[in-house]
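Marked as duplicate of an earlier ticket. Keeping the data here for the record.
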Amino acid sequence: MRLGIIGLAQSGKSTVFEALSRTPRDPAGRVESKIASVKVPDERVETLSAMYKPKKTIFAQVEYFLPGLGGGAQKKSEDESIWNSVRACDALIHVVRNFKAEGLSAPAPADDFAKLDHEMIFADLLTMTKRLERINADKDRGKKIDPAELAVIDQVVKHLEGNKPLRRVPELAASPLLKSFTLVSAKPTLVLFNNDDTDDAEPKATGPAADEKRMVVRGRLEAEIAQMPPDDAKGFLAEFGISSSALDRVIRASYELLGLASFFTVGEDEVRAWTIHRDTVALDAADCIHSDIRRGFIRAEVLAYDDLISSGTYAEARKLAKVRLEGKTYPVKDGDIIEFRFNA
């Protein structure tokens, strides 16, 4: 899972990236793009690791991507090259300034959100318009065109011309005919209001922002806390009334936004968390581990994490008939512990 961090200039994107990735501030300023891979905090993995004492414990991973500034020039908003750089991301984190700073105007989070959202819409409209021009040119030359693609693109253009992002119509955004375009306004988006150090209140969301999943972070404060030793960080989080780190909160919100879940494989060699979309069937979950398991799939031996904990041991859970054998079409649940049976 990769999340791209976007926002207007001076919104605090770099600071939020530092808080999420626990990377130190770059004193030279940001020019190049940055990417950080961090483990997904999960107490269930820690508990399973303590039970099985494996040689390796592997948490799920999430990547945060911060686009570069294209030569370091300060700009009021992201340009086309930055939109292109986030097209491969699964979702976007839209950082919106809600803090005061010397030399900056008063915060206007609703307006700032709408401005950048409009730029995403315009970038997608430009992409679709160019595609329509090519289709019409092919049609004039007598080439065969795909009427289904033309119909979908017409729908997209009409929607975008209404100044609405494609994520508002997920059934249209998910069309296979649009997959190759990786439209930015179609991506699930989490709005992070970047507040002052002592302000934990969410600003009133009006206009387009009211329809988004929203959170508040105190970027500068949490970036500083992220650099502290864990014990010191806990004290500062408590002092400022922050229940959990920005990283933990954003990851949970991201999983919810993308409809993700985790299943686990356990044993003496390895305890591991695997990330899937909710209701992924067992056959596809097996493919996450290895294509050979999918090809030779026989059954999935499934035990819910909560049932393992209440039973105490895997053997006891089996005695209590908590362990089930499921087939290819079984929808995997968050927290399932699975052992796949397959022909090599």
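See parent ticket for discussion. The radius of gyration is 23 Å.
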